[in-house]
Structure formats: C-alpha cells, structure tokens
Design goal:
440 residues; mainly alpha; two-stranded antiparallel sheet; two-stranded antiparallel ribbon; 15 helices; globular; disordered N terminus
Amino acid sequence: MIKPVPTWRGIFLAGILGVFTGTFFVQADGTNLAAPVAVEPDAATTAVPGAHLDYAPGKAPQFWSVALADTIMARWPDFTKAYFNGWTYVNGYALRGFEMLYQSTGDKKYFDYTKRYLDQFVDANGNFLSVITAKGTTNRPSFGNLDNMMTGNALVMMYEQTHDERYKMAATKIRRALDTYPRNSDGGFWHNQRMNGQMWIDGVFMGEMFVSRYGKSIGDTAYCWDEVTRQLTVFAGHAEAGHSGLYLHGYFEPGHGGNVPKWANPQTGLSPEVWSEGLGWYALMLAETLADLPKEHPQRAAVEDIFRRLAAGLKRVQDPRTGRWFQVVDKGGQPDNWTDNSGSAMFTYMLQAGINLGLLNKTEYAPVVARGYQGITANARINDRGLVDIYSACDGVGVQVDYAHYINFKKSMNAKEAVAGFLWATAIVEQPQLAKLKKP
C-alpha cells in the first residue's frame, strides 16, 4: 500500500528548522518513491570496481551526508584516483564537506581520509609531489589557474589541526602564486592565466576559498581579507543580472590580448545567463567569507548586502513544485528548463549558513531551506550496491554561449560538483542531529 506519510526527513527538518515541510509519497517500508531511476551516464568512472556498502537500496539513510561520505570513501579509498585528475578543485570541495562531518561528529575517519590524500602530495619540506592518477598519468599540483588553488583550503585545515609546518609551507607556495597572477584593470583575477581578461564566477570561489582560509590561520591576514572582498565585490559590480541580486556566469575585459570569448557580449563583456552551479559557487563563497570576515572590515557591509540580496533573489525564483532551482536560475518559466541538483544544493547550504550566522531571518528562510533539502534529496538514491547516486546535474560546465547550451548540456549521474555540493548541503542541514553522535 502506498500512502502519504511524514518521512523521517519531514520530522527531522521540523525539529531543526522549526517548520513542518509536508509529506512524501513513500511505501510503508520507507522506500523513497521520489528518487529517479538511473537514466544518466555515471560520471564516477574511476571508482573502484565492486565498491559496495550496507545501506538499503531505494531507502533513505538516516543521514544523507554520512551515507554520501561513506560512498565517496568506498568508491575511492585513495581520493587521488577520483574523477579526472589527482589534485583538483573537486577534491578540495568534497574534503571541506568531510571537515564539516568531522567537526559535527568527531569521527576521525573523515580527518584521516583527508590526511591520506594530502600526504601523497606534500613532502617533509612542504614541496609538492607527483601522483599517478586513475588514468595512469602523472599529476603534480601547479597553480596557473584558480581551480587548482581551491584544494589549498584543505592544506590550511590540516595545518590548523596538526601544526605540522610542511602543510603551512605548501600552502604558502600557493599564496605566493597569487603575487604575479594576472588580473583585469579592476583587480579581478583571470580564471586561468591563459584566459586573457576572463573573470568567471567559479573562480571567485576557487581562489578565495583558499585565500580566506590562509589569511585566517597562516598569515598575510590584511591582504587576504582585502583580496577576498575585492574579488566578491568586483564581480558583483560587473555581473549582476539587472537588479535581481543574481549574477551571470562570466565577465570579459578587452585589452589584454588573446581571443575574445564567444560568450562575451560585444558591448558589455558579459555572458548571457545566470547558471545555477556557477551562481552556487558565488553563494558558497559569500557564506564562507561572512563566517570569518572581521566585523570591522571596511567591506563587511557591502558583502553582507550582496549576500542578503542574493538570498532574496533565490527565495523569489525557487521552484515551488520541487523546492530546487533551475539550471538557468531566473528563467524557470521556460518549458525546456530543468532543476539542477548541484546549484540547488549550494543554495540550500548558503541559506542555512545565513540563518546560522544571523544574517537571514529564520522564520522567512527556514521554509526555503527545508524545501531545498527535500528537493535535492529527492534526486538522490541508494543504488543496488548500497551506494548513494546523485542525479540531475551536469559535469564540468564552462561558460556557455547561450541559454540553449546550458539547458542542453549533458546531464550525468554523480557529477563531481553535484556530489560535493550535496555533501555540503546535507552536512549543514543535518548538523544538529549529527552533533548528537559526537562522543563526549
């Protein structure tokens, strides 16, 4: 018999968010009927063959965040073998989620997994080493692009926890790479040293996640906070879509040589659309910055204003049917648009962080978070090997030339960014209950 009953998620969210968010159609045994069937190619192609866990197929786990972290560790006991290269932004992105779980639960397996990964890249003198990737190629970290800097966040975390100087020395090598990194005339970093004049919304997250953590815990504190707030405000000054509080994917400044990107408007230099995952990177960086930015910093008020306006914009365009957000965020009325699980997870994290930080009114935004959490978990499923699969997202999207290219970009199950974003979102929403697992 199938009947509408409050699932554990509805009850759980009611307790921690102070709202009851409705019911799911579930079988009496708890099977989640909202989860999709596998129709998308699996992006986790380098996973260990035969990886499996004991989670019940088709049923919601007690904690999606824990089940997903367990899944990542099962698929890749050695995280240098994940996805397309050994040292990438997605490793650092996911490992920040592992840090959240370690903080909430005290379970050392999350810390140990991160340390095993980093220790393959850093020698006793803080020099970067090469590893062999899952594809048999050699990968040594280099920092000619912002993407590769993101995982430096995990190095700083490890220094905070261990006070081992080699992590600090390695992180400082990344910091020094910014001294000569190319910029536009207003100080905005190029996304890649070869992408002349191109500032991508993705890069604000990739570079500044590292910079903010470095300034907080290692040094150059004044520079780091000034740099983080500059990148956030410079991008906001160029790329807002009208007065919506939402931001376009990229901005191009001519005059630096090289080719003009096809996506850049000849008059404004702007890309055409508000892409869900790209805006999600920016949303995360705002939240992470405001968690630590000193109250007295001269740009604090400006960053808070950007944060609140973005939150209001997201609340306005959330899909009322699914609780998720659309691939092209501000065009949900288009019949071919679809809800993206990756950006939706990022927005869910950002809004919950805003409530936690006292930046957003809980009464107003807790229901938005609750719907977001329900929406993204409806696009997750425990497969027949007991592993978590994440659906309805794209893998590795660059700046696209028009709406159609964003909408028609191939979807992938377990898209690497969607997996890490889902971990962040579920970890922060489930945190009050996860904390009860922590041993005294």
